[in-house]
Automatic annotation (TrEMBL):
<dbReference type="GO" id="GO:0008418">
    <property type="term" value="F:protein-N-terminal asparagine amidohydrolase activity"/>
</dbReference>
<dbReference type="InterPro" id="IPR039703">
    <property type="entry name" value="Nta1"/>
</dbReference>
<feature type="domain" description="CN hydrolase">
    <location>
        <begin position="3"/>
        <end position="323"/>
    </location>
</feature>
<protein>
    <submittedName>
        <fullName>Unnamed protein product</fullName>
    </submittedName>
</protein>
<dbReference type="InterPro" id="IPR003010">
    <property type="entry name" value="C-N_Hydrolase"/>
</dbReference>
<dbReference type="Pfam" id="PF00795">
    <property type="entry name" value="CN_hydrolase"/>
</dbReference>
<dbReference type="GO" id="GO:0030163">
    <property type="term" value="P:protein catabolic process"/>
</dbReference>
<dbReference type="GO" id="GO:0070773">
    <property type="term" value="F:protein-N-terminal glutamine amidohydrolase activity"/>
</dbReference>
<dbReference type="InterPro" id="IPR036526">
    <property type="entry name" value="C-N_Hydrolase_sf"/>
</dbReference>
Length: 323
């Protein structure tokens, strides 16, 4: 069967939730024609922005599970396009805050609510708690086939707190050992050009590059630049329409257990990243769809890259993946 997946790459601005929603719906409305995707994946904290400085700043945007504007958007998308929708939101549960993501069914019901397990320092700045359940998996039924599915949010792909051994591959090993077939990753991943010690002139330089408006990227058909992340081509100057190949290749490598072991059913990984500049942070965009085929070759990664969006664009990537 062919699984049709869409990654909806956004640049959500803190304080502009309604405008963020409007852009998301505009991209979908202008790009999608039947047959609609089976899955539409949006970024981490898809409509609220991510780089909150403290618990007070994030407080107006917290949502209880099944309530609030993020759930309303996911419900609207799922029922309009008869698809599963995955999107991130800042969740309030009793006195705790989580960085969470929904999987919403075509009827608008919540199939799964996942809470981020490995926190980035920004999550801690705005008061996040780690998931008490750790990594989880759940079943999604598409075209009468059941897919064992897992959601990982951004830092979940990295070594725990950047102190665990790189080769521990906690999330990827969880997915491999639990025979997960479909991995969905909403993220707010930093661009490889970004540095934690950026000076103001660095911020000003890249901010200026984002001032010209660029059209939404509607990447529906296979295009030449989709192979650029494998060649690791980097334009001589920062170009918003090109993928951040270093980041996209790093994502492939973080699923090493998928290319070091044999398995019979292919494993599909869809990563939806945000783009743009938020405060002193610059994101990598480059939302991508991969398939690991389960043939373990020495010194060869058996992976298909079905496409990547530009590092600085808003837009959508739609691909049919044989599974």
């Amino acid at each position: 069967m062919k699984l049709r997946i869409a990654t909806l790459q956004l640049n959500p601005i803190i304080g502009q939730v309604e405008e963020n929603i409007k852009r998301a719906l505009t991209i979908l409305d202008e790009s999608l024609k039947p047959p609609f995707p089976d899955i539409i994946l949006l970024p981490e904290l898809a409509i609220t922005g991510y780089n909150f400085a403290n618990p007070q700043q994030v407080a107006p945007y917290l949502e209880e599970q099944g309530k609030g504007k993020t759930y309303d958007l996911g419900n609207f998308i799922s029922t309009k396009y008869n698809c599963h929708t995955v999107l991130g939101y800042p969740e309030k549960k009793d006195s705790l805050i989580y960085n969470s993501a929904y999987c919403i069914s075509p009827t608008g019901s919540i199939i799964h609510n996942y809470r981020k397990s490995f926190l980035y320092k920004t999550d801690e700045d705005w008061g996040c708690s780690e998931s008490p359940s750790g990594f989880t998996n759940f079943n999604v039924t598409i075209q009468n086939r059941v897919f064992k599915t897992a959601i990982g949010i951004c830092m979940d792909l990295n070594p725990y707190k950047f102190t665990a051994p790189f080769e521990k591959y906690e999330f990827a090993n969880y997915c491999y050992s639990n025979e997960v077939e479909l991995v969905l990753v909403p993220t707010a991943w930093m661009n490889h050009a970004w540095k934690d010690d950026w000076k103001q002139e660095d911020v000003d330089h890249y901010t200026k590059l984002y001032e010209p408006e660029e059209p939404f990227e509607y990447n529906i058909d296979l295009k030449e630049k989709n192979i650029l992340i494998l060649t690791q081509y980097t334009p001589p100057t920062y170009t918003r329409s090109y993928p951040d190949s270093e980041t996209a290749v790093y994502w492939i490598l973080r699923f090493a257990p998928f290319h070091a072991n044999k398995f019979t059913k292919p494993k599909v990984v869809a990563i939806c990243n945000r783009s743009g500049i938020e405060g002193r942070a610059m994101y990598a965009g480059s939302s991508s769809i991969y398939r690991y085929n389960g043939r373990a070759f020495p010194e060869l990664i058996d992976v298909n890259v079905f496409g990547s969006l530009g590092q600085g664009n808003e837009g959508i990537l739609v691909r049919d993946v044989d599974v």
